[in-house]
């Protein structure tokens, strides 16, 4: 359907949208690239996310709907991406070229109007890294003067896969043959003695050809900067049946003991060139007559004096390693073989080698005598220079001599060696276990030592004791080190024993009092259990009164009390009176009874007395010792005081009584309900101010009523044991005035009206019967 304008409806809508939204579409906006990285040398398909407005193509004279035209350009770094495709207003697709160099690159999207959006560092190219060179093809054979098949040389990454180079690399290819020539595959007319090929970024290898006119086994080598060189063998010749084995590579100069040397054994035909090996192979046997020599195919293999192996296929040349650890003027090596197909023996070959000692690696220092060594007595030694395999080397020159550990009086300090040997007399001055050390003054780590030698000392002349770092804590051990020294300061070897004493410390408070027998030095723990302001420990060898006895004394130091372990609460002599303060001394002590210096928060308790019936209950800031005034309000026959602070506790050893105070009032016991005609029981108890029964009271009391009535009896008989019971008490002048819930009964001491008490009587017309 067309509109009245003759335009397609969608086209009309798009035109209307353009007119309503402005004459230009939105600027593109790039927000993300996925994936964010790719490998060098490999094209990577990318998804670009963001906001992209494409061009709209409208054919106003056609019924065809408008189309979206992709006119976006994507650049990654300096290179242009290809296969750019519009997916939606939110996404584009593009392919990153394989030639992008490693590193981070900006990604830029540009629309048809030239407006662009750039994501800085949006895509990273990772270089897998070139790890090594390899010959992809195996060993090649060629007729003289003819080109081999293509031989490929490649760069490989650590996983063994071909690795395109990120920077130009120069490969160098050479041959050990003077007549060998190389050419790049397809460029045979440019044959060269040495070939250099430059690999451009993105290339991972090259194909080359080899040609040689000289029959034999020739080794090709390839190298590249910063990569290990590689080698491969090419056999050139007629390759006739095998007739002989030959050592074709033998060193002309003597071998060095312990260092492997490269050998080569070739299987040859009758012309002296490489042989064609039978399918079953050639069995090759290699031997050496040296008991310390051995042969191996690879450096990591064990070396054997007799080596047998089979050569098959194109393996007509066998590279070998020979190592010998004993120096000798002549060592023989032999090679023999037989054809496993025809069982025919091949012509053998024998060569001789010389093995010289290696470089001097150590010195051997040997003592000639066997008796005990003493300071100041010369002892004879022999010095020899050796290589790593104990071959005597022809070392000539000065060797520095010393001891380990050092002996300041050791002599001589050096010696001259001639052809690897010398003898000298040595003297020692320090008593110790010591080794004589010989060192090359010019080559580090070339040295030699004797086994440990025991140097004996003279008699002891001095005692030395370690200082005591004070203050110490009572009951805690500290270490004393005592040394018996000769006149050189060496620890003597004579057995000794010392007696210990401490100034101002009572007997039994120092442990131990003797060191026990020791030789040279002894370290033992010392314990002082008495706290003192200052003391010193004296140590005397043998008897204190013996003339010439060795002795020494520590410096002065203090001994502090240890941590509080308990409290000492002194006994309370005699009975105390309720409510009357009395003094008790309390002391905080350590395990050994020393008064401590810790500060405590004390809590007190009295046996069988509730906390509210004595004071004080706490003592803050207590330290060492204090006299505390206690007041107990409860009269009882036996109690004792105790104290606690944390885990430390204390209690009086004995008990004491608390007597009641003077009578302050009476405690009456009356029935809960009384009538005017009742006879009822009244019990009175004399008590002090804290309701303790005063059993010593024996007075009498007057009884009265208030506000009306009379009571009989009005005067009590004498109290017995501080209490009294009246079984038949009656009231008068109260009838007709009930009920009265509080008819006061007034009890007053007959001699002291201040001692009085009032008690309500519940006067009723009738009272319920008690069950």
TrEMBL record:
It comes from the Bacteria. InterPro entries: Ig-like_fold. This is Ig-like domain protein. It comes from Archangium gephyra.
């Amino acid at each position: 359907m067309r509109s009245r304008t003759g335009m397609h409806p969608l086209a009309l809508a798009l035109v209307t949208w353009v007119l309503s939204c402005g004459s230009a579409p939105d600027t593109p906006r790039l927000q993300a690239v996925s994936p964010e990285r790719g490998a060098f040398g490999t094209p990577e398909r990318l998804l670009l996310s963001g906001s992209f407005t494409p061009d709209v193509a409208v054919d106003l004279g056609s019924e065809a709907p408008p189309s979206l035209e992709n006119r976006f350009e994507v650049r990654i770094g300096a290179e242009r991406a290809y296969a750019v495709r519009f997916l939606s207003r939110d996404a584009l697709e593009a392919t990153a070229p394989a030639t992008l160099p490693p590193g981070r690159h900006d990604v830029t999207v540009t629309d048809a109007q030239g407006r662009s959006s750039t994501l800085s560092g949006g895509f990273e190219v990772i270089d897998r890294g070139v790890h090594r060179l390899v010959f992809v093809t195996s060993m090649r054979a060629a007729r003289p003067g003819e080109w081999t098949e293509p031989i490929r040389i490649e760069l490989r990454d650590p996983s063994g896969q071909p690795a395109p180079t990120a920077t130009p690399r120069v490969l160098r290819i050479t041959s050990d043959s003077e007549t060998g020539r190389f050419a790049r595959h397809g460029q045979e007319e440019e044959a060269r003695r040495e070939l250099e090929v430059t690999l451009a970024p993105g290339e991972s290898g090259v194909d080359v050809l080899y040609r040689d006119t000289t029959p034999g086994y020739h080794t090709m080598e390839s190298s590249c900067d910063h990569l290990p060189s590689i080698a491969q063998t090419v056999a050139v010749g007629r390759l006739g049946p095998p007739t002989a084995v030959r050592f074709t590579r033998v060193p002309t100069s003597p071998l060095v003991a312990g260092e492997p040397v490269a050998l080569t054994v070739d299987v040859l035909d009758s012309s002296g060139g490489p042989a064609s090996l039978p399918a079953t192979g050639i069995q090759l046997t290699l031997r050496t007559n040296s008991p310390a020599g051995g042969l191996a195919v690879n450096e990591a293999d064990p070396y054997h004096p007799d080596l047998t192996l089979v050569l098959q296929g194109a393996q007509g040349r066998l590279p070998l390693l020979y190592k010998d650890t004993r120096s000798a003027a002549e060592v023989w090596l032999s090679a023999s073989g037989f054809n496993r197909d025809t069982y025919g023996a091949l012509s053998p070959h024998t060569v001789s080698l010389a093995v010289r000692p290696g470089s001097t690696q150590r010195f051997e220092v040997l003592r000639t005598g066997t008796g005990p060594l003493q300071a100041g007595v010369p002892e004879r030694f022999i010095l020899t220079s050796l290589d790593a395999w104990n071959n005597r080397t022809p070392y000539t020159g000065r060797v520095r001599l010393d001891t380990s550990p050092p002996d300041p009086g050791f002599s001589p300090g050096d010696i001259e060696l001639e052809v690897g040997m010398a003898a000298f007399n040595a003297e020692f001055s320090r008593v110790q276990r010591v080794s004589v050390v010989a060192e090359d003054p010019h080559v580090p780590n070339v040295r030699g030592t004797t086994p440990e030698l025991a140097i004996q000392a003279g008699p002891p002349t001095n005692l030395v004791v370690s200082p005591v770092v004070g203050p110490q804590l009572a009951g805690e051990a500290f270490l004393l080190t005592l040394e018996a020294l000769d006149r050189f300061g060496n620890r003597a070897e004579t057995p000794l024993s010392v007696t210990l004493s401490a100034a101002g410390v009572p007997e039994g408070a120092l442990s131990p009092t003797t060191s026990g027998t020791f030789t040279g030095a002894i370290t033992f723990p010392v314990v002082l259990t008495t706290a003192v302001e200052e003391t010193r420990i004296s140590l005397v060898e043998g008897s204190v009164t013996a003339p010439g006895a060795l002795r020494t004394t520590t410096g002065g130091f203090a001994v502090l009390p240890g941590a509080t372990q308990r409290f000492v609460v002194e006994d309370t002599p005699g009975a105390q009176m309720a409510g009357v303060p009395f003094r008790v001394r309390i002391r905080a002590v350590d395990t050994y009874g020393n008064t401590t210096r810790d500060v405590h928060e004390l809590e007190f308790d009295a046996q069988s007395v509730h906390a509210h019936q004595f004071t004080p209950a706490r003592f803050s800031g207590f330290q060492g010792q204090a006299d505390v005034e206690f007041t107990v309000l409860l009269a009882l026959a036996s109690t004792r005081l105790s104290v606690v602070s944390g885990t430390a506790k204390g209690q009086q050893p004995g008990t004491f009584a608390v007597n009641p105070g003077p009578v302050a009032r009476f405690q009456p016991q009356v029935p809960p309900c009384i009538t005017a005609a009742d006879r009822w029981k009244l019990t009175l108890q004399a008590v002090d101010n804290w309701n303790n029964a005063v059993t010593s009271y024996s007075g009498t009391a007057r009884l009265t009523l208030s506000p009306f009535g009379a009571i009989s009896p009005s005067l009590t008989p004498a109290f017995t044991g501080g209490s009294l019971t009246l079984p038949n008490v009656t009231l008068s002048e109260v009838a007709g005035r009930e009920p009265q819930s509080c008819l006061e009964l007034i009890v007053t001491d007959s001699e002291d009206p201040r001692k009085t008490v009032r008690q309500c009587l519940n006067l009723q017309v009738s009272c319920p019967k008690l069950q």
